[in-house]
Amino acid sequence: MWRRWLAGVLGAFNALNGVVMLTDGKHWYDTVPGVVFTGPYNAHFVQDIGAAFLAAGLGLAARAWRPRYWAAAVTGAAFLAMHALIHVIMLVSMMLGLCSDEAWPFDIALVIVPAALALYAAFPGKGETRA
After folding, report:
1. How far is the C-alpha of 83 from the C-alpha of 16, rounded, in Å?
2. Residue 129: what pLDDT?
3. Most buried one in 52, 68, 69, 80, CB count within 10 A?
4. Taking the CB of residue 83, how many other CB atoms lie within 10 A of it?
5. What is the 3-state secondary structure (H, E, C) of 34-86?
6. What is the maximum alpha-carbon separation in the chain?
């Protein structure tokens, strides 16, 4: 039950993030910590990524709604994990002095930790149906 609840919360968070990116990308770009350091605003690019976040969120939410849809959640969590891996590489580069990342606390709190939790929540727990 805990995994389903967590999948639902993460699904809602990521789906909402995707919707905001799709509908008000400039506001998203200007307010999310660290995003402005990645380059100039590109509406099409933000919307493309917003679509991926929306799909990931819906996949995780499907797991909360119906446990047997765990494969959809794994797919959504895979996107989040690959996105987080990019941020981990950036953090390692920062620690090695190869680049700077002024938003690293937000990278950890808003990207890396939620991705790890999504991977945990996506897979069925002991005693759950794997249908």
Report:
1. 17
2. 61
3. 80
4. 17
5. CHHHHCCCCHHHHHHHHHHHHHHHHHHHHHHHCHHHHHHHHHHHHHHHHHHHH
6. 48
Those residues with Cβ within 8 angstroms of residue 15's Cβ, 6 or more apart along the chain or in another chain: 53, 54, 56, 57, 58, 61
The 10s digit of each residue's pLDDT in 20-60 is 999 999 999 999 988 998 899 999 999 999 999 999 999 99
- The token pair at 5 is 């609840």
For the chain, percent helix, then strand, then coil, each to nearest 5? Answer: 80, 0, 20
Contact 61, 15 (CB under 8 A): yes
CB 3 within 8 A of CB 66: no
Question: Which residues, at least 6 apart from 106, have a Cβ–Cβ distance to it below 8 Å?
Answer: 32, 33, 34
* Whole-number Å distance between alpha carbons of 105 and 79: 21
